[in-house]
Amino acid sequence: MFDKKTTCMVVVGAQWGDEGKGKLVDVLAEQADFVVRYQGGANAGHTVVIGESQFILRQIPSGILHQKVTCIIGNGVVLEPENLFSELDQLGARGIDTTGRLFVSDRAHLVLPYHKLLDAASEKSQNLGTTGRGIGPAYEDKYGRRGIRVTDLRRVKCAPHLLTERITRANRLLEMMGSAERASLEAHIELLERLAPRLLPLAADTGLMVHRAIRDGRRVLLEGAQGALLDVDHGTYPYVTSSNTTSGGAAVGAGIGPTAINGVLGVVKAYTTRVGNGPLPTEAESPHGERLRELGGEFGSVTGRPRRCGWFDATVVRYAARVNGLTGLAVTKLDVLDTFAEIPVGVAYRLDDASCEEMPSEVDALGRVKPIYEVLRGWEKPTGTARRLTDLPSGARSYLDRLEALAGVPVRYVSVGTRRDQIIEV
Ligand code: GDP
What we know:
alpha/beta; ten-stranded mixed β-sheet; four-stranded mixed β-sheet; 12 helices; 32% helix; globular; binds guanosine-5'-diphosphate
């Protein structure tokens, strides 16, 4: 997808996350010089399979698996430093040298243990299905203007001053929420002092780095986490994540201007899944849902939670195309549908007996919609060895053509298996 005109590209999830962005970024990173994560935290889990090895990367962009790529964790991310270090150690143990190739924005906010305590306590009352990793409370602190940023570690001698009020506040909240847990000021001071020497050498003005890279004609990939329907503004609020997952968030979270971006690739599964609570209009009935889950290995890579599974929902993808300005689609996991004789596709909704072609803003309304299905014939042949569109069974090509027409965005990639080579560039 990179060419003379397309040098700065965003890869976003165009459903509810887990679309296989990790694999797409891994494939595209081969042509990239920089890969930038722009939002979210350690709640994302990109899974990349290389040979016999499986890498689950929660914070480090999956581009790190390519030796010539420089990776950046942008200002829009909330960073959990200990998790970052353990990811770095795991990569190191598997022979992947990250020296001088990973930078962290000094404007990124830190996720600290007290955020996790708050997350666990509020999940008990709100039941939004969060991963409990402190991401939401860290973003709340960011927007409440009481967050702690990577750059603050440069003044780590001031740690008690930085932390006292925040820990007191967190403990007051924990008490109010009926939690018996309390955050320890001493433990947090000790933590910041311990983190600083390892994190600060990675810290940089990464917006400036990305700006210069673009100016110098380098190829930059901006990697989103989660998906459009989990965007805090455009998703199925309140069952959303705490950041802007959509492509607008890429400019803000990477620290560049929106005019620098010239391509937006939306990753979609050939069907639909969602983790956690909230409406999922095309959720498949038993036994099809279970079958999709088993065949697609639809269990969360961070939490192991079974994902809810359903059919491709064109209303969702059309909406995602609009709010992201998608210029291309990557359809993943086509192979998961290989054995289905018939494949329903949700083409529109009915809401309270009226037709509904756009995504309702109210979650209750989305919970009430009834999908209108078009049932397409399956191909009932394996697709995993296809490397060109013409290698695919004609039923699979018709299926892709239909998805493309419904979404209104050209299909640029088709993924037919977990491995790096199992991809078709259209
Ligand atoms: P991400 O967060 O969007 O990167 O998605 P995840 O990594 O959580 O989920 C994608 C899962 O699907 C991973 O286990 C991938 O190895 C797997 N995957 C990606 N593309 C394909 C594909 O085309 N076919 C199959 N069967 N699995 C795939």
